[in-house]
Amino acid sequence: MPASQQEPVRNAAAARGRPTEVRISIGLALGGGAALVALSALVTLSVLLRWLGEGGIPGDFETVEMLTALAAFAMLPLCQQTRGNVIVDTLSRNWPPRAVRLVDALWDVLYAAVALIIAWGAWQGGRDALANGTATMVLGLPVGWAMIAAAGLAVWLAIGAVVSALRLVFEGRS
Question: Taking every annotated instance into account, which residue ranges of this chain make up the domain Tripartite ATP-independent periplasmic transporters DctQ component (predicted)?
Fold first, then answer.
């Protein structure tokens, strides 16, 4: 595999040669990163206002908890598809490359299964929260939509994990 495909995505020019699912995941990860930057600004401003005795921004903690979860789920697919997750190769260090790829593919499939279980739980929780009118305490934001969005992102993670497993098995790419 060319070295340029082994390196993490560093800019938009590097993304052009990537498969469509990776490009979609890059967009999601950029959105998640932008959300984290906005959340950092929100927290900084809220703390500064408290320090100045003006009181914080109402609902800042609610916004942080919802958007942080969504940002994390938005970034996980890219991490998976570019093989950015932590890999422990203590046992497989001296195995043949094909055996390592097959074991890695198995772990990718298991990761996809866990992501689908998370998606199912988030979907069910989101539906229940919307049906019950569950909202945040300060701002009154409906929490169900965030849970359903997290479910969708978890499904995308599962798809990415299956695609990366298939690549490991059939194309020999890691």
Answer: 40-169
